[in-house]
TrEMBL record:
Family statement: Belongs to the UPF0367 family.
Species of origin: Cyanobium usitatum str. Tous
A Pfam family of this chain: UPF0367
Record-given protein name: UPF0367 protein C7K55_10245
C-alpha cells in the first residue's frame, strides 16, 4: 500500500490518499506535481480506491507539498516518512 500525502496552507493536518499499486500512486503524485507547477486544473479531486463514492476536492492553490511513501514504512517503528535530520 502506498500513501500520497498533501500538505495544505494553514492546515496542521495533511490530506492523505492510499493506492494499492505503485504505478497508481506515482500517477497521482505526478498529477499533484503538475498542480504545484501551475500546469494543472484549478481544483483537484481525490477519490478512494476502495469506496469510489468517497471524494474530496481541493483548491490547487492551497497545496504546498506532496510526498509519496510506502505505508508499511510507517508501522515498522523505523524512520517516519519524509525527510528529517534524524538517523
Amino acid at each position: 500500500m502506498y500513501v500520497v500525502e498533501l500538505s495544505l496552507k494553514l492546515s496542521p493536518m495533511p490530506v492523505a490518499v492510499q493506492r494499492k499499486e505503485l504505478n497508481d500512486a506515482q500517477a497521482l503524485y505526478n498529477q499533484v506535481r503538475q498542480v504545484l507547477e501551475g500546469d494543472g486544473p484549478r481544483l483537484l479531486e481525490l477519490t478512494c480506491e476502495k469506496e469510489e463514492e468517497k471524494r474530496i476536492t481541493l483548491l490547487c492553490s492551497e497545496v504546498v507539498a506532496v510526498q509519496l511513501y510506502e505505508k508499511s514504512a510507517m508501522g515498522s517503528g523505523g524512520k517516519r516518512p519524509g525527510f528529517s535530520f534524524d538517523s
